[in-house]
């Protein structure tokens, strides 16, 4: 008799103070279940509703090993598709089905994807500070810990700056009206000076990354990429917003700075032209945001043919289950580039037994069948998510000095 899905449910938890969404798919075989990441931290409860109220009744009774058919049918089941809420909901189910398949086959998921191309996954960490020296000190700390790649961000005086922890909003203003000021020109003047300082102090051995985070007009982003060319970045991340992606054809003609893009992508039509046109060097999507492992492995295969390497999104708002899925794919694909790393705190490790391990700058997963990670639901319940943390508010309140909204 074929296996059947008997239950689908979401677990919301925040062991590191960041809202995580995990989907658990149970089967009629006692003890056989799978876990998947559906973390859209800014809209966690909306994803929960999509899973519990819509995908669950659609999936009950189906064979969990029919991964491709379930993905295709669930993808169109809402008629409208390719949005972040439904893609994340679908990802939670999809990763859980791959986890189940690995457990049934008795092998890790990376084996199902073709087997290892490498023994461990090279990673990068985030260095930031209020000034150049503080950033340099953080980079040195990561180098001493065994990392070879570091992303560097610095505060811009008087501005709320992504990646540095600086804020400008008045504390007595309600969060939904607490404006953070952002001006692009001081930023594009400061960043080349930061990387010139780092190269002078640290030399060429460290691979440096910078995240523009889509916050500047396209012409300024192109100028920044050219100014950074002589400083030999590993890559420049998200220089344009998804709405401005057509500028990549111009940028590619003007600079040899390696380019990474994709954190906000949901739809294949956003990334396919950039890959087929050889306009980027690294694809950097949030895997749950595009619908899970099933579409991510297809994306990876297309990227390989066009010389584009992977650099999956991997901060704290990817659950440990999502990180495990990232790493299994990283291990199995020939065009792996780099993996953004998150150091799990003790609470995360306790809630998610089998968390990937960071050692000497590399991620390692265990060789247990499936994704190799579990979830302690009783302990997860001791870290409930909050209703509306500040990061729900500030993305919509970054503004120019004249009040104009800035795209994150």
Automatic annotation (TrEMBL):
Q: Name one GO biological process term.
A: amino acid catabolic process
Tree of life domain: Bacteria
Which PROSITE patterns does the annotation name?
A: MR_MLE_1, MR_MLE_2
Q: Where is the Mandelate racemase/muconate lactonizing enzyme C-terminal domain?
A: 132-258
**What GO molecular functions are on record for this protein?**
magnesium ion binding
Task: Tell me which UniProt keywords the record has, alphabetically.
Answer: Magnesium, Metal-binding
- What's this protein's family per the entry? Belongs to the mandelate racemase/muconate lactonizing enzyme family. GalD subfamily.
The entry's protein name is Starvation-sensing protein RspA
Q: Which gene encodes it?
A: rspA
